[in-house]
């Protein structure tokens, strides 16, 4: 697996969930980190300090707002100033909103496209010159099963994730001879605290047991009837950073329990 000692990774949306798992996996391989995301300041500091304590790396926090291109560029610049380079970029920040298309609030559409898609473009744009100059880099975008298939009432999210898949391919082709790879990971339903917290309300609203909510609602689309774990997603990202994955670029790697095989 990848040995990333001396490398620096910027991971957006990394204060919890999949993003934090990415950060921990990369730190475990020796990478220094710029973490980013929303949350309580004390909780964020606890996670940042924990990365340093647990893995013996240096981790700094950027409060960059993924709606603001200038702040995304400054987040990358922070990594370059602090560590001398940004070698790995993981675009993971994302939000969701569910509504029929005719009622979809315009401001929600704009925010989802900005955070789930455009922020990845701005981050990539900022890291590519340094990666090309050094002849090595890894860009990993968190997509979704919804980069390959659609679900009703998620027009902005599905559009953004399809866009991430296309952006990934385009960047991979542009950087194909540079030593820089660009790939996306498309998880299905991942077991996170956010998902877990939804279960009691769904049980009450639908008069279902916990097992029925998990199997008949949350995992309806996943043939394995098992959640993906954040650690599994992070381990795939770590593999993509390895020399063994140097010829994997422009790929959309599904990790969805068979959802998109149907």
What tags apply to this protein structure?
alpha/beta; NAD(P)-bd_dom_sf; single chain; two-stranded parallel ribbon; SDR_fam; 3-hydroxybutyrate dehydrogenase activity; seven-stranded parallel β-sheet; Rossmann fold; 262 residues; 9 strands
Written description of the protein model:
GO terms for molecular function: 3-hydroxybutyrate dehydrogenase activity. It comes from Rhodopseudomonas faecalis. InterPro entries: 3-OHbutyrate_DH, NAD(P)-bd_dom_sf, Sc_DH/Rdtase_CS, SDR, SDR_fam. The protein has 262 residues and is α/β, with parallel strands linked by helices. It has a single domain, classed as Rossmann fold. The protein has helices at 17-28, 41-55, 69-83, 106-134, 155-174, 193-206, 210-218, 230-240; strands at 8-11, 32-36, 59-62, 88-91, 137-142, 180-187, 190-191, 228-229, 252-255. The strands form two sheets. Strands 3-2-1-4-5-6-9 form a seven-stranded parallel β-sheet, sandwiched between helices. Helix 5 links the parallel strand 5 and strand 6.
Summarize the structure.
The protein has helices at residues 17-28, 41-55, 69-83, 106-134, 155-174, 193-206, 210-218, 230-240, and strands spanning 8-11, 32-36, 59-62, 88-91, 137-142, 180-187, 190-191, 228-229, 252-255. It has 262 residues and is α/β, with parallel strands linked by helices. It has a single domain (8-190, 229-261), classed as NAD(P)-binding Rossmann-like Domain (Rossmann fold, 3-Layer(aba) Sandwich).
